[in-house]
Amino acid sequence: MIDKTYLSDAIDLQAIHRVLVTKLRHHGDVLLTSPLFQVLKNHAPHLQIDALVYHDTREMLSGHPAIAEIYSVGREWKQQSGSARLEHEWRLIRRLQARQYDLLVHLTESARGVLLSQLLGARYSVARERADRGWWWRRSFTHLYPVPRAKPRHTVELHLDALRRLGIQPQFEERRLILVAGDEAETEIAALLGEHGLAAKQFIHLHPTSRWFFKTWPVERVAELIDALHAQGERIVLTSAPDPRERNMIGAILARSKAPVVNFSGLLSLKSLAALTAKAKLFIGVDSAPMHIAAAVQTPVVALFGPSGDIEWGPWMVPCRVITSEHPCRPCGNDGCGGGKVSECLTVLPAARVLAAVNDLLAWR
Q1: Which of 30, 39, 101, 259 could be stapled to 60 by a disulfide with Cβ–Cβ 3.0 to 4.6 Å?
Q2: In whole angstroms, what is the distance from residue 333 CA to residue 317 CA?
Q3: Domain boundaries 13-175, CATH class
Q4: Which helix (H) or strand (E) covers residue 96, if one does?
């Protein structure tokens, strides 16, 4: 064990009983918090650890062995009348207050953390340092952890920095992502694979879409890659979210490709997607939640990154190959070059380079 006596304000885990961890972001962001719950449970098995997330992201954490309860905020609350939204918020606060938390771990930069810190009365609370938020942010938490300024840091490690600031040092193996697909999803995928004559670890899972299209690879490149993989004897399973734009992209890919593929686009829940990916021998995709799901179920990943940072968001603790361009401006974080929804750092990536990465990773296995 690492001596933590040098940290004068380290907390005594044996003196606390209930913890609330908040992450009000998107699916991939929520999944990247999963190691934090396990680290807390490993270091203090007596703890009851709850999560607060957006309702549509609950599946990223449901079934997690270290989580007692999951509470959620509806994204649709913002579109409702002021009185209706206030009622939703107050009901949630009352439910959280009833849990009598001793520790609040706020992993989001939102001001909601200040409100929770004040209304829940937790003895300890930790959030990231935010110089731009002023004194009211600093005084709302008992502990603040710094974010590296000179160099980027993976999001999982940033989450775990909240625990390090409290005196909890995660061990290496504790940092793996955790996603439980569940028996229902496992049964569904076993049946689907059987219908299409697909055996476990005998196909490649390709998820080329994202809700943010500036993160996607061009349709013609995806089709070229599919044809090349088919020529090598690989079987391909395609997936996408149910969103009509994503399904239209899949349709355009299939129209250009000459290879037979199994198309599950728009048909699977997130849990079923995880069960499918776990059966694949390799996953190919872009910076998106399905890529993080592949890492969580330990399926090797080939990931294409454009405007987003691969150091902060790359495949975590899984065999992988990350494909990027040499553009000096990336990662810029913009919504396409000039805000035009198309990212040149992705459009220039050739299919041959992705194919080489796939073959290299398959040979490594």
Answers
A1: 30
A2: 23
A3: alpha beta
A4: helix 82-99
